[in-house]
Amino acid sequence: MTAEISQLDLEEAGAVLAAESARFASFGWMRGTSGNLSVVLSRDPLRLAVTASGHDKGELTPADVVLVDGQGAAVHVGKPSAEAELHARVAALTGAGAVVHVHTVASVAMGRREPGGIVFKDLEMLKGVGQPAHDVEVTLPVIANSQDMKVLGDRLEAARDPRMPAVVVAGHGLYVWGDSPRQARHHTEVVEWLLELELAQ
């Protein structure tokens, strides 16, 4: 471990991420080994605990996390998610304390239906992402997918709307963030509700 972050810190973060992952997996949003979560453990230097690669997200233990740096590279032992670099980019760009990536049917379907972005308005649930329920339009950006996390991060940075703590990655899934794992979870559930509503219309 680094001097700033102890093994206990990492295990405590792992316990939080395991619980959050189990919740999302129970909704069918992290099928197989898909999806990944992270929580920021320090800002200077940037360090995140990220769920380990290749694990069933409904069965994670507190040990199934990897400490990564601001480029998403493992600081100690372990193999983080291949998308750890994007988690780090989102945390640095938005100031988020936690990032959620889930593979939901609604996010992929709506990304195909509305590749220019998904517009929401006049919905009470918008309050769940800090926006007024009426008289404002909020767009959830949709960005093209890439296996290159630098390219994907550039697309996210160019497209993101500060009023919406989320983006859809076309053909892939949903990235959502918040100040804490709890807020990131709430944002994820709200954005997914909005997507499911749009899909049903």
Automatic annotation (TrEMBL):
**Protein residues bound to Zn(2+):** 101, 103
Q: Which Gene3D superfamilies match?
A: Class II aldolase/adducin N-terminal domain (3.40.225.10)
Q: What class of enzyme is it?
A: lyase
All copies of the Class II aldolase/adducin N-terminal domain together span: 15-199
Pfam families cross-referenced by the UniProt entry: Aldolase_II
Instruction: List the GO terms this entry assigns under cellular component, sorted alphabetically.
Output: cytoplasm
Q: Which domain of life is it from?
A: Bacteria
Query: What keywords appear on the UniProt entry?
Result: Amino-acid biosynthesis, Lyase, Metal-binding, Methionine biosynthesis, Zinc
Q: Which GO terms describe its biological process?
A: L-methionine salvage from methylthioadenosine
A GO term, aspect molecular function: zinc ion binding
The family database entries (SUPFAM superfamilies) matched by this protein are listed as: AraD/HMP-PK domain-like
What the record notes about the co-factor is: Binds 1 zinc ion per subunit.
Q: Which reaction does it catalyse?
A: 5-(methylsulfanyl)-D-ribulose 1-phosphate = 5-methylsulfanyl-2,3-dioxopentyl phosphate + H2O
Q: What is its EC number?
A: 4.2.1.109
Q: In which pathway does it act?
A: Amino-acid biosynthesis; L-methionine biosynthesis via salvage pathway; L-methionine from S-methyl-5-thio-alpha-D-ribose 1-phosphate: step 2/6
Which cofactors are reported in the record for this sequence?
Answer: Zn(2+)
Keyword Flavoprotein applies: no
Instruction: Output the InterPro entries linked to this UniProt entry.
Output: Aldolase_II/adducin_N, Aldolase_II/adducin_N_sf, MethylthioRu-1-P_deHdtase_MtnB
| Entry-linked NCBIfam families | salvage_mtnB
State the function annotated in the UniProt record: Catalyzes the dehydration of methylthioribulose-1-phosphate (MTRu-1-P) into 2,3-diketo-5-methylthiopentyl-1-phosphate (DK-MTP-1-P).
Q: Which PANTHER family match?
A: METHYLTHIORIBULOSE-1-PHOSPHATE DEHYDRATASE (PTHR10640)
Family designation: Belongs to the aldolase class II family. MtnB subfamily.
Please give the name of this protein.
Answer: Methylthioribulose-1-phosphate dehydratase
